[in-house]
Fold:
Amino acid sequence: MAEPADSQKQLASTLRAAATWAAEAVGGGQSLVFAVGETAPHDVRLRAASGFANPEDARAAGTALVTHVRDAIAATGASEVAADVLPGGPRAAGGARIHPVRAGDQLLGALALASPAPPSEDQDRRVAEIVGVIALALDHARLGAECASLRAGRDKAGGEDGETNEEVLRLSEALFAQDIELLRNNEKLGKIERLKNDFIEKMSRELRTPLNSIIEAIISVLTGEDDALSESAKSALRSALDEGSAFLRTLQNILDLWRIKQGELPVECQDVNFRELADEAIFSVQDAIGERNLRIETEIVEPFPRLRTDLAKLNQILFLLLDNAVKFTPEGTITIRAWVDEGMLHVSVVDDGIGICHDDQQFIFDEFYQVDEPASQKYRGAGLGLTLVRDLVVLVEGEISVQSDIGRGTTVSLTIPLQQA
Structure:
């Protein structure tokens, strides 16, 4: 049986896993796990969350839901929540519900769950299983605390209280049985995670290898057989090359996001020439600009020393920001502004594009998020670029923010700590 400190770590780990599992079970929603106080049932506390851009958003959602959770935890079933209570954007488009968490007659907490679409019967069944996992974890912690308190009282009294000894024995047996069930649940959660990881690894191998071969073959034909090809054939091959390259970038973004979540994308610092990095990023998006009246400028504030940070990640961040700016700026100017101040690199990518309305700005870093359906049809992409930018910035311990006005453009600003070069 786990000691109190280990038990709390196990509880926190299980609740985090259950929150993640719940958000994924409804197709990428938002979940919050609440626990009630041991002596005051109305003392509701947020214990875990998933599907939010940052902890601050999760805490704000938890605060907004506390009153509804208090009203719902005494209910006999799931309670609907008004759509405007949990402003989760597309992740909460299907509405939100609060599921009471009980073990027998004991009220333990609640699972608040928002979904992109109304949940299906199969999703409801999976959510019910997750509620059971949360109930078991919270009840195990409750019984563990009760057992520890009885033991402390018994030991203080000299251990002669037979009735207390029997109760401690009963609770110990119950805790042991719950330990076994928790191990089974954790094994199940781990198996799901392993299956997901295996799928992503196989997708990487099975899709990237033939895709690279196709791209190389198209390039070979375009360079080696240029004189023998008609203009229509060249145009078709270039179009296929663009489509293949875009698909490969999307696949790579998915894999990078997964590696970040798995902690498999380490930070590797080295000396960086920012001017060269910016020029390389600008060159990489020239094909996307095409014949449009759109130019990219750089404004580097002197003195600008050589930097020491993660070259690959900063390069990827710059490319993704420029690629996004080019996509949503029909004409005008995109400016990369950079300066160094007190050991911090400050970078802003400013465009004259279509802009983002204020209500949508809080969601643009969400995975697969696009502002609206017409925009998603006109401006192609999977909605992963800014999500990956945010995760890469966080990975190098930086910060990112967005300012935008409809029709007046967007400014994405980031701050990254530097090592001494």
User: Anything to note?
Assistant: The chain has three domains: 4-160, 198-261, 269-417. The chain is about 55% helix and 20% strand. Residues 372-377 have pLDDT under 50 and may be disordered. The first helix runs from residue 4 to 25.
